[in-house]
Amino acid sequence: MAKVSIADIKTLREQLGTGMVDTKKALEEADGDLEKAIEILRLQGAKGNAKRADRAATEGLVAAAEVNGSTTLIELACETDFVAKNEKFLALSEKVLAAVSAAGATTVEAGLQADVDGQTVEQLIADEAAVIGEKIELRNVATLAGDAFQVYLHKTNKDLPAQVGVVVAYSGDDAETARSIAQHISFAAPQYLTRDEVPAEVVEKERDIVTEISRNEGKPEAALPKIIEGRVNAFLKQVVLLEQAYAKDNKLSIKQVADAAGITVTGFARFKVGA
Question: Where is this region: Involved in Mg(2+) ion dislocation from EF-Tu (predicted)?
């Protein structure tokens, strides 16, 4: 068995972030060959990734970047808050965000295939997960085009990275109001920009639900159509951004706030870690 030097152990640990015992064992198995030891450690990590595949990754962070007239928002997930604030995980998120935004990816699938120094984001995440020792996944990706953007990243815990992220694309000059709308979105969690974007099947499902509720309440049959339409409209005002009551003044809708500020919201994305 080759004699393993402290210097080689230190070199590998700094490069890969692996534990002292695992690093020493890999070097011994590789007869002191650094490259072979790296291969051994990565293979061990890959096996660990397979074992972790079914675990829940409910922690992590959101991050955003603007590149070439568009803004990308990602959610990178891990298993524990300890890893979420780890330097290696934060560095990984920066590389992933840079690659995904440079590629202009609009889906997770496209984001995973983005290039990072000759390898894909998917491969990079797998390699880093093997080293960090937790399941890591790119859970959400959105890229918005627009004239202007406001990004709002909210920390739910001061000791952790941002866990709620919002991007608002808009036209107009009132950046302050656009940012306020981004903050509203982080709180109110709309699902659609306009009523026209709500899929017909979503509306019909809600209509069926409120119809059953209204009948079970014993409402008069003649009054049911008006009651049902009123409840469907109330639902739409909850899920459609421009129809939501403004968080800072519930007498105004978001559309009224935007119109008064001379801006037009053209799109938005919102991610919450673990949601």
Answer: 80-83
